[in-house]
Every structure is written in structure tokens, then in C-alpha cells.
Amino acid sequence: MITLSLPSPAQPLLPPSSKTLNPSRQNIIPSFDSLKNPNFLPLKNRLIRQLDVGHHRHAISTLDLMTQQNAPPDLTTYSILLKSCIRFHNFQLGKLVHRKLIQSRLELDSVVLNTLISLYSICSDVDTARSIFEGMGDRRDLVSWSAMVSYFANNSKELQAIWTFLEMLELGFTRTSIALRP
């Protein structure tokens, strides 16, 4: 049985991190323990197939099964789940996936954090989106800034969009900053 429950406001939105200034993509690669488990890749592929046909509830069940079978989901799996929830406008389920992601204690990278910002921006929960954005600190990238500017601009918060955009420029983020940042 699947229970939908949302994290309480007192629960942290981001798991503890090592405060890396340059987030690496190493966390996207399945953990060694996951790869040792022969069930990891078949379960991950099953989850992706379920998402492709819009069976989100089955995908969440598979996510739980992965944990039960000692084949914990990796960041890629969570990212795929979150993006699918956004694509199908299933925001309640996206929030549930976020909660499971927090419980996983994986160190989140900017890709997953940006996806979370998008999720909460699209479902008009600007406080949570802003909290995630602020919590990113030095891990914010051009995508993070653009997501916040877009949210404000598309929700009649033009002044906030302009201030956020100016802050982004002041910190050195431009269209070419992706190639210039280490």
C-alpha cells in the first residue's frame, strides 16, 4: 500500500552536505553497493519503463522495492522520477519523491536541486523553491538562477524577477558563465 504524506515544514529541505563548491557528477553514478546487487539495474530499468507509460504509483512501489532489496536508488533514479512528476503535473507525488530523497541521505547535486526548484516553482510553492535555492549556496548555477527568475517573471512578480536577475549578474552568472566557471 502506498501512503502519500508530505514532509512537515520543520523537516529540512536539503540533506546534510559536505558543502562542496564544485558539485561533481560522481553521485550520479550508482554506488558500488547498488552495482553489487544484481537487482539494481533491472529494478531501475523497470522503474523507468513504468514512468515512460505514466504509471507513477507503480514506479514509487518499485522505488520502495529497491530499498527493501538493498539496491537503493541513486540520484539519477530520483532525478528521473522528479522530472516525470513535473512532466505529468503530479506535484503531490513529486513532493513524496522529495521526501524519500531526503530520507535516502544522498548528497544532492545541482541537477537534482534544480529539478526540485522547478517542481516547487511550477506548483507555486515559492517558499520551498526559494528555500532550496538559498540552501544551495555555492552550488547554485545558471540553471538555478534562471529557474528562480522565470518563476518570478511568470507569476506577476516582475520586481522580484528583476532583483534576482541583477543579483545573478552581480555574482558573475551570464549565458557564457557555464563555460567559464571551474
Mean pLDDT: 79
State the end-to-end distance: 46 Å
Order of helices and strands: HHHHHHHHHH
Classify the beta-strand content into a percent band: under 5%
Rg on CA atoms, Å: 17 Å
Largest sheet: none
Helix percentage: 55-70%
Q: Give the overall silhouette.
A: elongated
Please count the helical segments: 10
* Contiguous uncertain segments of 5+ residues: 1-11, 15-29, 177-182
Helix/strand-derived category reads mainly alpha
Could you give the count of β-strands?
0
Descriptive notes:
It is elongated and about 50 Å long. With 182 residues, the chain is an all-alpha fold. The longest helix has 14 residues. It is built from ten helices and no strands.
Which helices and strands, and how do they pair?
Elements: H1 32-36, H2 40-52, H3 56-68, H4 75-87, H5 91-104, H6 110-122, H7 126-136, H8 142-154, H9 158-170, H10 177-180
Helix pairs in contact: 2-3, 2-4, 4-5, 4-6, 6-7, 6-8, 7-8, 8-9
Tag the structure with descriptive keywords.
mainly alpha; single chain; 10 helices; disordered N terminus; disordered C terminus; 182 residues
What is this structure, in a nutshell?
By secondary structure, the chain is mainly α. It has helices spanning 32-36, 40-52, 56-68, 75-87, 91-104, 110-122, 126-136, 142-154, 158-170, 177-180.
